[in-house]
Design goal:
single chain; seven-stranded mixed beta sheet; 1 helix
Length: 127
Amino acid sequence: QVQLVESGGGLVQAGGSLRLSCAASGRSISIYSMGWFRQVPGKERDFVATISWGGKSTYYADSVKGRFTISRDNAKSTVTLQMNSLKPEDTAVYYCAASPWGWNTAYLSDGKNYNYWGQGTQVTVSA
């Protein structure tokens, strides 16, 4: 079992930055690929970014590529999403998730392939 807790959300103006953190407890996350997803009320949860077990491989949704950076520290059991140049359309609840799948971007961009989820943190970007 892995418990995930997100933090770092908040209100920011367009063009600003936020840094989301995901703290894991329970089983070590070093054996999991990790991902970030986001959801707007009334819409499906969308893939944002994913990172491989060791952190050497990353993959991003086109909508955030070049603006967001995912990283991980397995020793500290944390995963981070640095979000720069934020836009109002980035407003959503952001979720951290853990997947037992190895590196496969098709699988890891699909939320159905993640076993563990955090409770989410709200990010609001004002125009």
